[in-house]
Give the backbone structure.
Amino acid sequence: MIEIREVSRRGFLQGIASAGGFVLFAGSAAAALWTEQSAGGAAVSGQPVLQPSIFLGIDTDGTVYIVAHRSDMGTGVRTSLPRVLADELDADWKRVKVQQADADERYGSQDTDGSHSVRDFFDVMRNVGATGRLMLVRAAALHWGVLESECTADLHTVVHGATSRTLGYGELASAAAKVPVPKKEELQFKPRSSWRYIGRKVESYDIVDRCTGRPIFGMDLHQDGMLYASVERPPVLGGKVKSCDDKETLQVEGVRQTVQIPPFKPPHLFQPLGGVAVIADNTWAAFKGRKKLKVTWDNGPNSSYNSDQFKNELLETVRKPGKVARNLGDVDAEFAKGGKTIEAEYYVPHLAHASMEPLVAVADFRNGKITTWAPTQNPVGDQETVAQILGLKKEDVTCHVTLLGGGFGRKSMSDYVAEAAVLSKNIGRPVKVVWTREDDIRFDYYHTVSALYFKAVLDEHGKPSAWLQRSVFPPIGSTYDVSSTYGGREELGMGFTDVPFDIPNHRVENGPAVAHVRIGWLRSVANIYHAFGVQSFADELAHAAGRDPLEYQLALLGQPRTVADVKTPPGYALDTGRLRRVIELAAEKSEWGKRKMGKGEGMGIAAHRSFLTYVATVVQVEVSDTGAIRIPRVDVALDAGTIVDPDTVSAQFEGAAVFGASLARTGEITATNGAINQSNFHDYQVARIQDAPFHTNVYIVDSTAPPAGVGEPGVPPFAPALCNAIYAATGKRVRELPLSRNGFS
Amino acid sequence: MVQLKVNGVAHSFTGDPEMPLLWYVRDILGLRGTKFGCGMALCGACTVLDRGKAIRSCVTAMSTVSGKDITTIEVLSLGGLHPVQRAWIETNVPQCGYCQPGQILQAVSLLNTNPHPTAKQIDEAMSGNICRCGTYQRIRQAIEAVSKEAK
């Protein structure tokens, strides 16, 4: 749980003091908090009179300003969290203006990853809303000379019921600013039945901008006097420039100069990769000049990396015992008894994020300070990385956040912002570094490559009496420590050590693997390969046992219970009853077992809990004689606890099905001699409209449980559900992704 | 010298003839609603209209645009939201929205020539426009809604 230091006055004053000489009651708001930086760079100052918290301001004209401190990459968080605050404030949504926060630790975590936003800030937003409402009510009571308890808030006004007098929030703002900020213990919250916005559909805040071509994204940034840069980076991780001939580059119309960026010092963390930057008057000139560079590289030791060979190494490793990450009962003793034994190995390759907006950042270094603008998931991470690389104090680094044209985890890694910062300092001008699609795919922090091994012995009912599962993958830890080879607790907790099956003997192991490319987070992270292995193997066992895969899933889960040995945040116990319920709901809605499947048609199911959300996915597939796949229908049931906007949640799961279809059908990054083979959408294919599920139906369990994640949990069950459907349709078991490697198209 | 019209305004260009229309529109004219996605006509983010027909501005060199009459996303809503934009908003199509100017102009181009496309025709017409957020089913629904409205 996040501590609400912002609503205590002490915390508020401290916070404001560090923002630079702000007087609480003077009505001169801290400009840093209330300066909206549009992508075009124009500053719009709100300067609201009443500021109960750094998240909220109310002006005398009744405008309510709510700070969006998390990054919106398409999840709608710029709408959903402010809606929670507005609901508790009892504000009129039509009079709310949302302002994007700069990097500022006082907001709490701004690192928008891990499907955390609503989960971690739902209560924070309610606290702030309730604080503002109480201050307004108290101001009205003072004004009327009546008891506070006789006054109530009602849609942007405070009402004195006995005399039918009302005052608008704008009319009250100045008076409320003189009311002491209440203590947390004084706050009263609206009952769920009075929620105006939470749980209801609304247009997302920026939707008109998003449909009319407003310059809202990082790619649209523009600063006066800005130059453009494109960077030729070492093709192999850790490579260095041996020589660079830029004569022809400098002859290109619009090219100004070239700048060498030094290589990183290991570990690479979020440092720029190094290379040669071409600085020009426009993007095209920078691209064209870069093509004319003649650079030779010292590729270094990672040039030994060949992903085909590495795959065999991973498979060899996964066949050997690894470190035990979870153990129930005695798997070995049970295996020794013999019985029907099933083994299987699975493989999932590297993936690239490929957001539609390639990486881009603007930096402006002047007078020993730097300002950056970027479509970033992690502005404080940008601030820390830039400060460290330029040797600046954190307070001399200002990081602005634009809307993001997708992110999927890539834009939480700050190398692209740091690159712009290094270049701006070097050339003494504001500079915009634009990554090409080729850069975006070749210089990613890749989703790791993994191999998985499973073994189970079945009892007389066909249910496993012992189950062994093992994974190996170069871990994300390698980005922080080059010697890191074992999966971190967080990675293993993503669908591996938290498998909630009711199996008496169950062991989870992890083996070592060395990273040769940068490894990072990609939408749902380790859940992708873990769910693929676990849910494919469960389906294999169902068929081996001659049982219906859906009924078998329920049998594996056993009776509804809390899985005691899996650690969870308070209030989020792993409840197999909730997982059973989404399976049953998906079964019912998809008419599992009731719809007649023709030749080459089949249905598959997978269920997976991730980011504290329970999801079951049923995929229907059609496979032609030549292996062409069509996905006419997907049914997804989910329990994400309390939700803010059902339509936004639905959209995230529709999108996750498409993301899952992309990675399952064609998602594959490979390397030869350390360099990435793929470069653009012709060789790193993602789902197009005809490849995506034709229709995904989303069913949300009505729940009063605390909110859980929605951005990522739809992804993990999709690939195994699709492959299980392909097995049902064709009898062909897919143990290696993508499908394009298995004769399917 | 290259002479063309962009959003009804005549322009002349004397710079690098190899410069794609995309970068002319974005960096020189400052119309940044047209997006860069791939540079190879693979994703459709850069879609603009030439006399109502969708073209990929990222592979359209300035040397080839003489006499073209280009429409970008910025002016589609000049006289109020275009029916396609209205349908996009009503269907809550965009997630991140980065590809949507291209998707919207591609849909406008489709409906200009075929006001009542079938689902299959929609998929064929929209297959060159990638949406990584995965809004495809809502894109199809929105186009179908415009088609229905026009009946």
In short: Chain A touches chain B through 70 residues (CB under 8 Å). Chain A has 19 helices and 29 strands.
